[in-house]
């Protein structure tokens, strides 16, 4: 019962982050699916046992941890890609800003010289 309440609280937290627009839309579906799966596996614990038996995994918890680790590795890989992309964009913006500042300072010197 405690796990079920915890799952509902986690799902409600995800929905609240979405409602407040604190979670980007591109991640919203992913986290909603995770929250719903967590709720389903908490409400029906036999489902995880059946799934692990069908996949040939001896202990259902091992399947849960394996899938969780794969999920987290995927999230970390995606976020690393996003950080790299944003670093490149930030570098380009800094270069563009430096060029604009140089042009403005040259324009000021030309106006003073006239």
UniProtKB/TrEMBL annotation:
Question: Does Membrane appear among the keywords?
Answer: yes
Name under which the protein is recorded: DUF2304 domain-containing protein
Residue stretches spanning the membrane: 29-57, 63-81
> What start-end ranges are recorded for coiled-coil regions in this protein?
83-110
Protein keywords: Coiled coil, Membrane, Transmembrane, Transmembrane helix
Pfam families hit by this protein: DUF2304
Source species taxonomy: Bacteria, Bacillati, Actinomycetota, Actinomycetes, Pseudonocardiales
